[in-house]
Automatic annotation (TrEMBL):
Organism: Lotharella oceanica
GO terms (BP aspect): thiamine biosynthetic process
Pfam assignment, any one: Phos_pyr_kin
Protein name (Swiss-Prot/TrEMBL): Thiamine-phosphate pyrophosphorylase
UniProt cofactor(s): Mg(2+)
Length: 452
């Protein structure tokens, strides 16, 4: 508790000493989270007069992130917060006046049907994190719990799944840390208990593993609440098991013939990912592939090109994170017209590589999510660490059970059974099929993995 100016000054001096020692020993400085506990849930003032100015002037510039609640944000910004626009403006004012890197305004005390937090990062990226509001009075300690959880995961905490280190497997970034902290708090609210009189404490539970508590991330508050996209149609039956990723329509034809002749049950979904083509060539390729998929009775997923997938009536569309929300701090631009894709009745698959991307993917309620790379891959240069089997377990617990999870990246036939056993319904492969000497034999061997 930073109740007096003297206490703030003492903390500032200690942090400066820690930073100086880190610099002297060539070590990384610790991640500093400041929860400015200024106003209680009841509205009671928790700081002496003048303390706020010292905190903003001396402490905030040393912090990696500041996490006020709505009432505290009003005091720091100097104006009432009545709307999402006010929240965004307050975060910008706090970051500017406090010269802090990142600001998270916690909105759990609002009167909305949702709990929405607003993250403004030092690069200007903005994220609204939303969870459904839990009907409970047992929320005492949510703010302290969130800042503590954020500090823990930022320090590289380890989850309850053995060996699943945040730093090693989950490709961490600040937004991912905040997503995990919010999920932890929401789990705790759901587990809160009435102890004595008044609101009970939020539960202190375990590494986030409940899909009901995992937040969804959007560029605007509206898209996280009443204006949420989807849900997109379910994959249906047969579901995604083997998902070969191919470069052109010729491969769609080749695989379609084999799948039809062999009456395969697993390889009925194929994704086309054309590269290096002009717009005209691209349309011809996708049209041909869609026509061939219908001829062979297979389900074709078009990678990225949403307008052509709609025009030529593909079964589904797969998009990467770079093709979803693009935010510049002034507004939202969407590379994919999600409303048009939904209106056309296409299924939608979304790639994910870290917790923040999973939160963005789940926000639009897709038909499936993919996780990768599971193992090192040679198919393309990737900036993400391998997820391994522990990542699959974690993603399966955080994704609704009805939503298929597809694993991709460096997966060999020998890995398939472990991948499936750990929670993935489907496996996307590239070189394991298109690079096989005998494509028919490779498909038959893969098909047997789901027949056991």
């Amino acid at each position: 508790m930073l109740g007096t100016a003297d206490v703030v000054t003492t903390v500032v001096e200690e942090i400066r000493d820690i930073f100086a020692e880190a610099k002297r020993t060539n070590k990384k400085a610790p991640f500093i989270v400041c929860d400015p506990v200024m106003v209680a849930t009841t509205g009671a003032e928790l700081m002496e007069r003048g303390t706020q100015d010292v905190m903003v002037r001396d402490l905030f510039p040393l912090c990696d992130i500041v996490t006020p609640n709505l009432k505290e944000a009003e005091k720091l910004a100097g104006f009432p917060i009545k709307s999402p626009k006010d929240v965004a403006r307050a975060a910008a004012v706090i970051r500017e006046t406090g010269k802090c890197k990142n600001v998270l305004i916690k909105g759990g005390h609002s009167n909305s049907a949702y709990m929405q937090d607003y993250l403004l990062q030092d690069d200007g990226e903005v994220t609204w994190l939303t969870t459904p509001k839990v009907d409970t009075a047992n929320t005492h300690g949510t703010g302290c719990t969130l800042s503590s959880a954020l500090a823990a995961v930022s320090a590289g905490g380890t989850g309850t799944t053995p060996g699943h280190s945040l730093n090693r497997n989950a490709n961490p970034n600040l937004a991912s840390h905040v997503v995990l902290a919010k999920a932890y708090v929401h789990q705790g609210i759901r587990a809160g208990a009435q102890i004595g009189k008044g609101p009970g404490p939020v539960g202190q539970t375990y590494w986030p593993q409940e899909h009901q508590s995992f937040p969804w991330a959007t560029p605007t508050a509206h898209e996280g609440a009443e204006g949420r996209y989807g849900p997109f149609p379910e994959v249906g039956s047969p579901g995604i098991q083997l998902l070969p990723v191919v470069p052109n329509a010729e491969w769609v034809d080749k695989l379609g013939k084999i799948i039809t002749e062999e009456k395969m049950t697993s390889a009925v979904h194929v994704q086309i990912r054309p590269k290096g083509l002009t717009r005209e060539q691209l349309e011809m390729e996708i049209k041909k592939a869609c026509d061939l998929s219908r001829k062979h009775g297979i389900k074709l997923w078009v990678n990225d090109h949403w307008d052509l997938a709609i025009k030529h009536k593909a079964f589904g569309l797969h998009v990467g994170q770079e093709d979803l929300f693009k935010v510049d701090g002034k507004g939202c631009q969407t590379e994919v017209d999600l409303q048009e894709v939904h209106k056309a009745g296409l299924r939608l698959g979304v790639s994910t590589h870290n917790y923040h991307e999973l939160a963005k993917g789940l926000a639009i309620r897709p038909s499936y999510v993919s996780l990768g790379p599971i193992y090192p891959t040679q198919s393309k240069a990737v900036k993400y660490h391998p997820q391994t089997l522990e990542g699959i377990k974690c993603w399966r617990s955080l994704t609704p059970p009805s939503m298929p999870l597809v694993a991709i990246g460096g997966i060999s036939m020998e890995d398939a059974e472990d991948i499936i056993r750990n929670g993935a319904e489907g496996i996307a492969v590239i070189g394991a099929v298109v690079g096989a000497k005998d494509v028919g034999a490779a498909l038959r061997a893969w098909d047997k993995k789901w027949l056991k």
